[in-house]
Design a protein that fits this description.
Order of helices and strands: EEHEEHEEHEEHHEHEHHHH
Strand content: 15-25%
Largest sheet: 6 strands, mixed
Radius of gyration: 19 Å
CATH superfamily of the largest domain: 2-enoyl-CoA Hydratase, Chain A, domain 1
Shape: globular
CATH topology of the largest domain: 2-enoyl-CoA Hydratase, Chain A, domain 1
Structural class: alpha/beta
Length: about 260
């Protein structure tokens, strides 16, 4: 499918989704969120795809925030609906994909951009990246999961400071507090992300999907993550990947997962 605001490229089992609104610093509008939802749905259904890299076009921004002009005159009901639709169609959806999603943060990741990066399974940033949640400076709060995912990643105190001051932190600061896993130069960002993706793709896709579900379960209210881990662990024993992985280990060869 052709898109207006994003680009999707696939090479073998790796997909790259690029938000392509460089003149708007890749700001998220309703159309872009819808296109991202469609792209992720298609990639999730494609059995060949085993990892996804999400990034922004140009050198200035991953996503510099939401398109404020779209909702500046919204009512309470419209604002509530905007947030819920965003959660359901993109941010929660990405977090719960069974295919690993790596955010490659090039430049600014602000507001909805940082929230989108935090929805991914982990993050890599270029050394010129700047991250923050500036919503309170507009008289609103993060509405796409920022108040929930940021404390999970950096701790309550650091999250409170970032949200209340509406300030930005550097890539180095983000790595220090656990918001991103790695920092590279901008030229090395995508090759570095691809290298990690290649390591992921050598392993069992079924086991990785089970691990995602088990890890995410620990952050769901009323869900016992240990119980989900036990269930997912047991289910793995009924897969061809388990047979192949254990057989390869015993025979001292590399596994060939289907």
């Amino acid at each position: 499918m052709s898109f207006t605001n994003i680009k999707v490229q696939t090479k073998d089992s790796l997909a790259q989704v690029t938000i392509n609104r460089p003149k708007k610093l890749n700001a998220l509008n309703k159309e872009t969120i819808k296109e991202l939802n469609i792209a992720f749905e298609e990639l999730e259904e494609d059995e060949k795809i085993r990892a996804i890299i999400l990034t922004g076009s140009g050198e200035k921004a991953f996503v510099a925030g939401a398109d404020i002009s779209e909702f500046a005159d919204f009512s309470v009901e419209e604002g509530t609906r905007l947030s819920k639709i965003g959660h359901d169609t993109l941010f929660d959806y990405v977090e719960n994909l069974s295919t690993p999603v790596i955010a490659a943060i090039n430049g600014f990741a602000l507001g909805g951009g940082l929230e989108l990066a935090m929805s991914c399974h982990f993050r890599i940033a270029s050394d010129n990246a700047r991250m923050g949640l500036p919503e309170v400076s507009l008289g609103v709060i993060p509405g796409y999961g920022g108040t929930q995912r940021l404390p999970q990643l950096v701790g309550k105190g650091k999250a409170m400071e970032m949200i209340m001051t509406a300030g930005m932190i550097t890539a180095a600061d983000a790595k220090e507090c656990g918001l991103v896993n790695h920092v590279t130069t901008q030229d090395e960002l995508l090759p570095f992300a691809e290298n990690i993706a290649n390591k992921i793709m050598k392993n069992s896709k079924l086991a990785i999907s089970a691990a995602i579900r088990a890890v995410n379960a620990s952050y769901e209210d009323g869900v016992n993550g240990f119980s989900i881990e036990i269930e997912e662990f047991g289910e793995c024993f009924g897969t061809e990947d388990f047979i192949e992985g254990t057989t390869a280990f015993i025979n001292k060869r590399k596994p060939k997962f289907k």
